[in-house]
Amino acid sequence: IGYMSQKFGLYDDLSVVENIRFYAGIYGLVGRERDARVAELLHQLDLAERAKQLTGTLSGGWKQRVALACATAHHPRMLFLDEPTAGVDPAARRRFWEIINELARGGTTILVTTHYMDEAERCGRIAFLSRGHLIALGTAEEITGQFGLGSIEDVFIELQRRDEGAPV
């Protein structure tokens, strides 16, 4: 299992490569295996040119890439991403989703929490939760059909409207 939190779990006073190397070590990678995986991640996530840069000096989008590299250093079969693109610019958001899709095509199961409905629509299955209860589950097409609405965003707005009248 890999996990990337909404708030970075990175060390600002370490470089990009040092952060990745540290997390790879925590996940049990050592020696040549660790070095090879770190090099692979630097290339895969376009971080090679920033490898020696202190993580604390990176923008939010670049920190997200480093955090993803750390969370996937050990090739997890399951990856949890908590609000992975919160606070990043549109270009960084687009690239991040390209990377997520590459991981999914490679066989990693990915669970994403997000408040961005356009991102939710990129996922194979969507679950809406409210007050700890599952209130909708399925593909984007299944859910929009179930509610008779045109988009996941419309469903979200409808569910919010309904929830406002629910007892606490």
Outline the secondary-structure elements.
Blueprint: E1 2-4, H1 16-26, H2 31-44, H3 60-71, E2 78-82, H4 90-105, E3 109-113, H5 117-120, E4 126-130, E5 133-138, H6 140-147, H7 152-164
Parallel strand pairs: 1-2, 2-3
Antiparallel strand pairs: 4-5
Helix pairs in contact: 1-2, 1-3
Sheet with most strands: strand arrangement:
1-2-3
Portion in strands: 5-15%
Oligomeric status = single chain
Kindly name the structural category.
Answer: alpha/beta
Overall mean pLDDT: 91
The helix count comes to 7
Low-pLDDT residue intervals, each spanning 5 or more residues: none
Helix content: 40-55%
| Main sheet characteristics | 3 strands, parallel
Key attributes of the depicted protein:
single chain, 168 residues, alpha/beta, three-stranded parallel β-sheet, 7 helices, 5 strands
Quick overview:
This protein is α/β, with parallel strands linked by helices and 168 residues long.
Structure overview:
With 168 residues, this protein is α/β, with parallel strands linked by helices. It has seven helices and five strands; from the N terminus they run βαααβαβαββαα. The chain has helices at 16-26, 31-44, 60-71, 90-105, 117-120, 140-147, 152-164, and strands at residues 2-4, 78-82, 109-113, 126-130, 133-138. The strands form two sheets. A three-stranded parallel β-sheet has the order 1-2-3. The radius of gyration is 18 Å and the shape is elongated.
